[in-house]
Specification:
Radius of gyration: 39 Å
Protein name: DUF4806 domain-containing protein
Pfam families: DUF4806
Organism: Trichogramma kaykai
Distance between the termini: 59 Å
Number of strands: 10
InterPro entries: DUF4806 (IPR032071)
């Protein structure tokens, strides 16, 4: 049985960018792919499975990292930092070797032959309640300020004003593990230490304890923003600031939706009709349905003399309910008199010997309320 072709592919371009594309955008040799022109929303093109157009860009594909069935799976994989998970050992060894050579050259040029080493102090970070990163021999606090927002375009890759993150070389969303301080930001390439705020105990309920998984995420973040052995601090802080802004925007939208829903529920409850029934309403069963004209005369006399009884009869009638006035009247008449008594009446006395029902006190009770009870 032929295996179904997966719709999405996570690729690495010849510019070493990670991209999510449709498999239908790949050429047969898998070395070239097509990308929509810049005025097309990239995410919409993926979700709508847009076909290749005549004016699309023609780009080189360095490697296909993974095929996925869904857009969500493809995006998730592209953000997990699995660029280095190559399909064969030869490619993996080549990349490791080239990275090692680049690091050696960079360190020799800057330190006159002395090799510097980046150390992530994970144990210390667990004690402090926040990750602490030390690069080189010195440490410098970093402030997450709005000035880093200028790096947003750089983080977004080469798509210009395209806000979609499917084609970004670095993730825009990752778990908040770093705490800002009041110290000034460092420039690119300087030593960095990320430390918790002062006077905050690790037991503070607002601060979650750092787990091994958190440290793995932190390692992955640092790796993505490390070039030739140096952490690009400003770019990393810019990406973090953008992620925090997006999270804050989402929380604001959720708050607005919850507030609107709460208002709608309160309004709906306020519109529900409320009816009060006196305890004597339960005794109406001894008076109704009326089975003969003598009982009808007794009810008429009681309605004429007793205002409380009249109120109880009105509430009893209203409790019968009905979606329309026709249903309401039908339910009331069936509850207050038998068929034998009803045959003796017509609304205006039509039929000669029929009694006029519109002149009775019972009819007054029927029209004493205006809305059907739903």
């Amino acid at each position: 049985m032929t295996q179904a072709i997966k719709k999405f592919a996570v690729i690495r371009t010849d510019q070493q960018e990670v991209a999510v594309i449709l498999t239908s955008w790949l050429e047969d040799d898998k070395k070239v792919f097509w990308r929509p022109e810049k005025d097309i929303e990239y995410k919409d093109a993926l979700l709508n499975e847009l076909e290749v157009g005549d004016d699309w860009e023609h780009l080189r594909c360095d490697k296909i990292l993974k095929y996925c069935d869904t857009y969500v799976d493809a995006i998730a994989f592209s953000k997990l930092g699995k660029i280095d998970e190559l399909s064969d050992a030869a490619d993996s060894d080549k990349v490791k070797s080239s990275r090692s050579d680049r690091n050696k050259k960079s360190n020799l040029g800057k330190n006159n032959g002395k090799t510097s080493k980046s150390v992530i102090n994970a144990k210390e970070s667990k004690k402090q309640g926040n990750p602490v990163v030390t690069i080189g021999d010195k440490s410098t606090n970093v402030d997450i300020s709005s000035d880093s927002e200028d790096d947003d375009d750089e983080i977004g890759g080469k798509r210009g004003n395209n806000d979609d993150d499917s084609f970004a070389p670095a993730p825009k969303k990752f778990k908040t593990l770093l705490s800002g301080t009041d110290s000034p930001s460092t420039s690119t390439g300087k030593n960095v230490e990320l430390s918790p705020p002062e006077n905050v105990e690790p037991s503070d309920p607002e601060i979650e304890p750092i787990t091994d998984n958190d440290n793995l995420v932190l390692d992955d973040i640092l790796r993505k923003f490390t070039v030739d052995g140096e952490v690009k601090t400003e770019r990393m802080m810019g990406a973090l600031f953008v992620a925090l802004k997006q999270t804050n925007k989402q929380m604001t939208q959720i708050g607005l939706k919850v507030g609107a829903l709460e208002t709608k529920v309160k309004s709906s409850l306020a519109m529900q009709p409320t009816h009060s029934f006196s305890p004597s309403t339960m005794t109406m069963s001894q008076h109704f349905p009326i089975k003969n004209l003598d009982d009808m005369n007794k009810i008429e006399q009681k309605l004429e003399m007793d205002g409380t009884f009249t109120t109880d009869v009105v509430n009893f009638m209203q409790s019968k309910g009905g979606e329309t006035y026709h249903e309401l009247i039908h339910a009331i008449m069936a509850a207050v008199m038998s068929d034998e008594v009803a045959k003796q009446y017509s609304f205006k006395g039509q039929g000669g010997s029929n009694i006029r029902f519109n002149e009775t006190y019972l009819m007054t009770c029927v029209v004493d309320f205006k809305e059907p009870l739903h």
